[in-house]
From TrEMBL:
<dbReference type="Pfam" id="PF00107">
    <property type="entry name" value="ADH_zinc_N"/>
</dbReference>
<keyword id="KW-0444">Lipid biosynthesis</keyword>
<keyword id="KW-0521">NADP</keyword>
<dbReference type="GO" id="GO:0006633">
    <property type="term" value="P:fatty acid biosynthetic process"/>
</dbReference>
<dbReference type="InterPro" id="IPR036291">
    <property type="entry name" value="NAD(P)-bd_dom_sf"/>
</dbReference>
<keyword id="KW-0443">Lipid metabolism</keyword>
<keyword id="KW-0809">Transit peptide</keyword>
<dbReference type="InterPro" id="IPR020843">
    <property type="entry name" value="ER"/>
</dbReference>
<keyword id="KW-0560">Oxidoreductase</keyword>
<protein>
    <recommendedName>
        <fullName>Enoyl-[acyl-carrier-protein] reductase, mitochondrial</fullName>
        <ecNumber>1.3.1.104</ecNumber>
    </recommendedName>
</protein>
<dbReference type="InterPro" id="IPR013149">
    <property type="entry name" value="ADH-like_C"/>
</dbReference>
<dbReference type="Pfam" id="PF08240">
    <property type="entry name" value="ADH_N"/>
</dbReference>
<dbReference type="InterPro" id="IPR013154">
    <property type="entry name" value="ADH-like_N"/>
</dbReference>
<dbReference type="GO" id="GO:0141148">
    <property type="term" value="F:enoyl-[acyl-carrier-protein] reductase (NADPH) activity"/>
</dbReference>
<dbReference type="InterPro" id="IPR051034">
    <property type="entry name" value="Mito_Enoyl-ACP_Reductase"/>
</dbReference>
<keyword id="KW-0275">Fatty acid biosynthesis</keyword>
<keyword id="KW-0496">Mitochondrion</keyword>
Length: 373
């Protein structure tokens, strides 16, 4: 006989109460005792059966209820972002992707709907986030093992809870894991308008670390520069502004950076390398331009530069997962205090495909799209 706890909701049109369970049940000492397997509600989901263009292969469908096992937690999702890696997974070009058919999304937050009989640390009504990130968050109800949910402070803004892992945590880990930065040091990065880039600027500023930021040449670059400086950026350059013999002559009072971040590749990566000081390190965590990183022989021999890569999931699924959760709590604390923020646009689930078009760049430059369920 299965036992579970449920989130019980009052009807807005009457005095009766309802629970999202369709099984015969009786109330016993504050718990619901069911006569059959505990099942989740049905779930509306973004589903794809084949890899390909996301705007072509995805569709909204209704998924049937699934069994909630003893260690499972069923969460009513509240928000989930559309990340570039989500798009790449659907396209079939991302190295780590779920088997087909699949539900999109990898990150998100929601409220606990019901829990399995062996779950003690979470209760219906708790605000939680998916941690570590895992597939299938673009749907109204998600069932996962209790180890994949992290309980949050009740005052955490949902849109930040849904987006804090993949991008802000990447920024924090890269600042802390590769070079022992001191107050007064500097870093350089391309892709500075990205969510990671915005977080790097603010987290570095809190530590007294200077940032040199490279953005693309495009319409609105002056406005983008102003926004980054308001976040705390010391220097912001478009790629064309760096078409000079000695880029370091543009630094003014900012010291040569010891650490660089590359999420673009191609020429933008080369510009990061040009700024680095003797013995500096460049960390690559993305390749939005889909072009290789090219390094001159002299950079290796005479500047003794180090190149390395960073993939957040390796940290989240290793023995450092608990440490990462502590860092997430730190980041969410900064968010609640107003010390960390980034641009997002909230889109209702009913307008998913419009938000997807924005994420694909069909409607020009757009902020991060976050689906609200």
């Amino acid at each position: 006989m299965a036992s579970a706890r449920f989130l019980t909701l009052k009807s807005i049109h009457g005095t009766s109460t309802h629970t999202h369970s369709l099984r015969p049940r009786i109330q016993i000492s504050g718990k619901v005792r069911a006569f059959c397997a505990l099942m989740s509600p049905t779930s509306t989901a973004v589903f794809y059966e084949n890899h390909g263009p996301p705007d072509t292969v995805t569709k909204i469908i209704q998924l049937p209820s699934v069994e909630i096992k003893a260690n499972d937690v069923c969460v009513k999702m509240l928000a989930s972002p559309i990340n570039p890696s989500d798009i790449n997974r659907i396209e079939g070009v991302y190295p780590v992707r779920p088997p087909l058919p699949a539900v999109g999304g990898y990150e998100g937050a929601g409220v606990v709907h019901s829990v399995g009989s062996a779950v003690q640390a979470l209760s219906p009504g708790d605000l939680v986030m998916v941690s570590p990130p895992s597939p299938g968050t673009w749907q109204t109800h998600v069932v996962k093992d209790k180890s994949l949910w992290h309980k949050l402070h009740k005052d955490t803004p949902v849109e930040y809870a849904a987006t804090v892992t993949i991008n802000p945590l990447t920024a924090l880990r890269m600042l802390e894991d590769f070079v022992d930065l001191k107050t007064g040091d500097a870093i350089v990065q391309n892709g500075a308008t990205s969510m990671v880039g915005q977080c790097v600027i603010q987290l570095a500023k809190l530590r007294g670390i200077h940032t040199i930021n490279i953005i693309r040449d495009r319409s609105g670059s002056d406005e983008a520069t102003e926004k980054l400086k308001k976040l705390g950026a010391d220097e912001v350059f478009t790629e064309s502004q760096l078409d000079v013999r000695n880029v370091k002559s543009l630094l003014g009072n900012v010291p040569e950076p010891a650490l660089g971040f590359n999420c673009v590749g191609g020429n933008a990566a080369s510009l990061v390398l040009k700024f680095l000081r003797q013995g500096g390190t460049m960390v690559t965590y993305g390749g939005m331009a889909k072009k290789p990183v090219i390094v001159s022989t002299s950079s290796f021999i005479f500047k003794e530069l180090s190149l390395t890569g960073f993939y957040l999931q390796n940290w989240l699924t290793s023995d450092k997962n608990e440490e990462c959760r502590e860092m997430l709590d730190y980041l969410l604390g900064l968010i609640r205090e107003g010390k960390l923020k980034y641009n997002m646009e909230l889109a209702p689930f009913s307008e998913f495909h419009t938000a997807l078009d924005k994420s694909l760049g069909k409607l020009g430059s757009q902020p991060k799209q976050v689906i609200k369920f």
